[in-house]
Design goal:
The protein is of the alpha+beta class and about 240 residues long. It has 3 helices and 12 strands; from the N terminus they run αβββββββββββαβα. An 8-stranded antiparallel β-barrel has the order 1-3-4-6-7-10-11-12.
Length: about 240
């Protein structure tokens, strides 16, 4: 039986298409209440709980604009700077069918601890701080200034993980702004109230993880293409 390379490649392509990993980007907005060890999420305006607003979706998220579900984080189950068992984080409820985003890593903040105890100052480079807490903090604070005067501060943190089907990975960079408050003011609120509530925004990127099967198919395709080219060249 004559070997039919195009037919073989077509069959492999069909089998590869059975699994459909997702990819794309989207923006998130909502309210977060942070304690030294937890993140609790609410929708824009403060209610309802456990939701966020998704916008500007691309790729598989182009039709997801609206209110989707987000799950709270606690360093008892999602420790900082340690890869942990994937936990459900985002469910796409606007257009069900997409796999969930599971979180499995929260890196420690990179602001250092030296600036946390310093008085507010509009320096260049700007003052930064990652609070010293048991288990480590994922937050990097930074003071913002104009002409040497502190006008506010920001907090950033990063989350990453995998999709529930295991075919894609994701990364999200979260930011909160504190207008008129230095991060020293924010840390004072932390110490006296025990939590800080602020609006946040985030940019999330989801990318496909090449499966071993996909890599094998790609390799076979390249090999057969080269083989066919060599045979045609030899017959000329």
């Amino acid at each position: 039986m004559k070997f039919n390379a195009p037919l073989f490649l077509a069959a492999l392509s069909v089998s590869a298409a059975i699994a459909a990993p997702i990819s794309g980007t989207f923006q998130m907005n909502g309210i977060v209440t942070a304690t030294p060890t937890t993140f609790t999420w609410e929708g824009v305006g403060g209610s309802p709980a456990d939701v966020f607003a998704l916008s500007l979706g691309t790729g598989n998220f182009a039709t997801e604009d609206g209110t989707d579900t987000i799950h709270n984080l606690n360093n008892a189950t999602e420790p900082v700077n340690v890869q942990f068992a994937p936990q459900d984080f985002i469910d796409f409820t606007v257009a069900p069918g997409l796999p969930m985003l599971l979180v499995n890593f929260i890196p420690m903040g990179n602001g250092g601890s030296a600036g946390c105890a310093a008085p507010p100052a509009g320096t260049t480079p700007p003052q930064t701080c990652t609070p010293v807490i048991p288990g480590g903090s994922p937050v990097t604070f930074q003071n913002n200034s104009v002409n040497g005067t502190v006008t506010g501060s920001s907090a950033t943190w990063t989350l990453s993980g995998v999709t529930s089907d295991g075919l894609s990975v994701w990364n999200g960079i979260f930011t909160s702004q504190f207008v008129g408050q230095s991060f020293q003011d924010v840390l004072t609120t932390f110490a006296t109230v025990g939590s800080v509530t602020a609006s946040y925004s985030a940019n999330v990127t989801v990318a496909v993880v090449p499966e071993p099967t996909t890599l094998v198919i790609a390799g076979v395709g390249i090999f057969l293409t080269i083989l066919r080219y060599r045979r045609r060249t030899a017959l000329r």
